[in-house]
Design a protein that fits this description.
With 138 residues, this protein is mainly β. 7% of the residues lie in helices and 46% in strands.
């Protein structure tokens, strides 16, 4: 997010799982998917230096037979603070990631012709600013 402000962010997206039955089953058994609201650790916004996870929610990789591309909505809500209590959550920048990560160990045998994927649609970010304190004088 460019130029984040202190306040509450509500991020909603629609996602589905698609592909061949074998590919979808391989995806479900070996991976997890999640939405992560994070803060960068440096002004260069280099993710190789890590990130500060603020909130996350799982994207369910369930598949309904006969209903490929059945989109579901997932929402993540979190208040981000600036200087409140020394939080410094927005100063280096804020980002949103959709992470697909392996949950099983060892070699992964992918069946021939198998395809499995997570498809994202309709991402929306709603922002509610923190209340203004009119008693503060600068």
């Amino acid at each position: 997010m460019r130029n984040p402000r202190a306040g509450t962010y509500a991020i909603s997206l629609r996602a589905c799982v698609g592909g061949t039955p074998d590919g979808i089953e391989m995806l479900r058994k070996n991976f997890r998917c999640r939405i992560v609201l994070f803060g960068y650790r440096d002004l260069a916004k280099n993710l190789l230096n890590g990130m500060r996870d603020y909130a996350e929610t799982a994207i369910d990789l369930a598949f309904e037979p006969g209903r490929p591309n059945a989109y579901r909505e997932f929402t993540l809500t979190r208040a981000l603070r600036s200087q409140d209590a020394g939080a410094s959550e927005i100063e280096m920048g804020v980002g949103l990631a959709i992470i697909l990560e392996r949950t099983t160990a060892g070699d992964l045998a992918v069946p021939s012709g198998a395809r499995g994927f997570v498809q994202v649609d309709d991402l929306e970010v709603l922002f509610r600013p923190r209340p203004r304190n009119d008693d503060v004088k600068v």
